[in-house]
Amino acid sequence: MKRRKHYETDLTDAEWERLAPLVPAVKEGGRPAAHSRRNIVNAILYWARAGGPWRLLPGDLPPWQTVYHYFKLWRDNGTWRRIHDTLRGDLRQQLGRNREPSAAVLDSQAVKTALPGQNAGYEAGKKIKGRKRHLVVDLLGLVLVVVVTAACVQDRDGAYLALAPLATRFRPLRTVFADQAYAGDLLFDWCWTQLRRWRKVFLWIVKKPAAQHGFQLLPKRWVVERTFGWFTWWRRLSKDYERHTATSEALIHVVMIRLMLRRLVR
């Protein structure tokens, strides 16, 4: 049998040992699996990093139909998010933090779309036709919530979608930092009232210094910009190539899983 080529995105033995217990095992009964779970995950990571269509996966990887089947299956049954959330807690603990954060940062990123799909629009401020990624991250830059909408959705409207899961998840969370695009009494009051059935979440607007000229890092706020910067290394995230927003959200979870695995076993 021809030896498979090694790719930069392949998981090391230590990384796979950490990930394997979280990946759904092969079902008992029936014929044996033709391709190992590790090879399937490696193929998905290659696709995300290289940025090409499924059909252009190299021939020494599992067939693209098989790889796409498992990516879609694990997207629809929540496996990617479950793995992502588990590794995020493990990494926070390894860095001396609690598994769940007490503070977070909210921001959005508008990206162009390459194909016609669901929920595409025009962002007038940045003159981008495509979609918008609404992200809530902890103070380490690790993703807590990701919601993908049409680019025409205003930041404050997207904030409701991104912050709503905080009502039942991340119980210790108390403060959310955001920039001036989220300023306004409506969103502030919504955070204070709608989330208070479980606890009070305070929205903190980080304003630019009055004398600021040009780019300047703002306290707490810069971590989410770094997270968006991590995405630029993955070509599949350079634009939104997906037809469905659920695929775009799952892809961000896949990329963060790879980044967190590397840090966990470093």
Please, could you describe this protein's structure?
- The chain is built from 8 helices and 6 strands.
- Helix 2 (37-50) packs across helix 3 (64-76), helix 2 crosses helix 8 (245-264) and helix 4 packs parallel to helix 8 (245-264).
- Strand 3 (128-138) and strand 4 (143-150) form a beta hairpin.
- The mean pLDDT is 88.
- Helices cover 37% and strands 15% of the residues.
- The radius of gyration is 20 Å and the shape is globular.
- Strands 1, 2, 3, 4, 5 and 6 form a 6-stranded mixed beta sheet that branches.
- It has a domain at 79-207 and 218-264: Ribonuclease H-like superfamily/Ribonuclease H (Nucleotidyltransferase, domain 5), CATH 3.30.420.10.
- The longest helix has 20 residues, at 245-264.
- It is of the alpha/beta class and 266 residues long.
- It has helices at 13-19, 37-50, 64-76, 79-94, 155-163, 185-194, 222-231, 245-264; strands at 103-112, 121-123, 128-138, 143-150, 175-178, 202-205.
